Amino acid sequence: MSETPRPDAIDRRDLSAEQQAAVEELLFRLADDEFVHAERLTEWQIYAPTLESDLAIANIAQDEFGHARLWYDLLKQLGYTEPECIWERDPTEWTHSLLVERPFDAGNWGDAVLRGYLYDVAERIRLKAVADTSYAPLADRVGKALEEEAYHREHATNWLERLTADDDGQARMQDALDDLFPAALSLFDPGPREDDIVAFGFRTESLAAMRTEWLETIGPSLEALGLAVPDPDEVARPNGRGRYGTHTNAWHDLYDEFTATYREVDFETPVELRATEE
Amino acid sequence: MIWEVFRQEEPGDSHEHVGNVHAPDREMATLFARIQHARRMQTNSLWVTPRDEIGEVTAEDAAFGGRTDKSYRWAMTYNDIDASFAEEVADSESEQREAARKRREALREEENEA
């Protein structure tokens, strides 16, 4: 992984129309996943099992909002405004995976932990896959996000080990896995411009290769904890193709919820997710 | 289980007690302590230790430093020397003087109460 752009790096001013569309798809995939995952995680605030776990998960949610910020900022460099990226964007244009929009099984901490695990392993793989991106503005932001992700995985695996420590816990985590796994597969579903994303070198791995790496990572780890990972080709996938903007109903409820204050308050200048760096 | 947390700001500093976390074991304690006691502060190192493993003795259990006037223990021979050339000597003297003053005050209070 290098933070120096590769020799053939493409600056944003040099993007062709096709290249720009591909970069935008890649950035929205990344940003939307982070934003919606974080949005869901905040639902645990004050409900996590202990004060300490509450702070830890809230902190992880904040990290993910911060990563969403990194990627939305790159979209703003390409001409998007904050409302166009988030607050006024049509919910059918969001391209996050179906995993992150799922409502939590209320009070099921195992759901939150396992979802975090499945997501964070995937996030590491996809950040590595853009570490050597040909899109120069993206390259120098990846390293920092990757460093923060280490805590997320440690958090998830430490909890997983403890929640699967006995038969009762294992049975509950198996239910959560059976529930989440089909939706998690959508993390690696292609969008309309997937071929361009790879052809232009914006991402240096194909989604198929990333999916294989993910399966080969989570498989042995979860099996070592006594869980059985379903066969990815056998499971019934949820309706909706997140990467094409079609989503489950839960997403539309969530969208209405997190944009409610924006619509009610009607600021002249909408608040930003965080003050922009630069 | 409660784990006491000690934070070191920079290499070489002493670890200072900053609070505690509830955690079932050491691994989870370090995981939580990182967020609870280090995410907003410059931190070079964190220690966590089970509260039960800390030995404590309090002023109720012990007469720290004794009860009588200890000024007879002072080294008087060098009193006329200006110690300002050696900071640590000057510091040590003023610490001792301060400690003696406090002890005298405490003794006086005890006598008044008696």
Descriptive tags:
heterodimer, A: 278 residues, Ferritin, 10 helices, B: 114 residues, alpha+beta, 3-stranded antiparallel beta sheet, 3 strands, flat
Number of domains of chain A: 1
- Which term fits the overall shape of chain B? flat
Give the overall average pLDDT of chain B. 88
Alpha-carbon Rg of chain A, integer: 18 Å
What is the CATH fold-level name of the largest domain in chain B? Ubiquitin-like (UB roll)
Strand order of the largest sheet of chain B: 2-1-3
Helix content of chain A: 55-70%
Low-confidence stretches of chain A are none
3D architecture notes:
- The complex is a heterodimer of chains A (278) and B (114).
- With 278 residues, chain A is mostly helical.
- Chain A has helices at 17-41, 51-77, 82-87, 98-101, 109-131, 136-163, 167-184, 194-199, 207-224, 249-265.
- In chain A, helix 5 (109-131) crosses helix 7 (167-184).
- Chain A starts with 16 loop residues before the first helix and ends in a 13-residue tail after the last helix.
- The mean pLDDT of chain A is 92.
- Chain B is of the alpha+beta class.
- Chain B has two domains: 2-53, Ubiquitin-like (UB roll), CATH 3.10.20; 71-113.
- Chain B is built from two helices and three strands.
- Chain B has helices at residues 26-38, 87-113, and strands at 2-8, 16-22, 45-50.
- A three-stranded antiparallel β-sheet of chain B has the order 2-1-3, covered by helices on one side.
- Chain B: InterPro entries: PaaB, PaaB_sf.
Q: Helix and strand layout, with pairings?
A:
The complex is a heterodimer of chains A (278) and B (114).
Chain A: H1 17-41, H2 51-77, H3 82-87, H4 98-101, H5 109-131, H6 136-163, H7 167-184, H8 194-199, H9 207-224, H10 249-265
Helix pairs in contact in A: 1-2, 2-6, 5-6, 5-7, 5-9
Chain B: E1 2-8, E2 16-22, H1 26-38, E3 45-50, H2 87-113
Antiparallel strand pairs in B: 1-2, 1-3
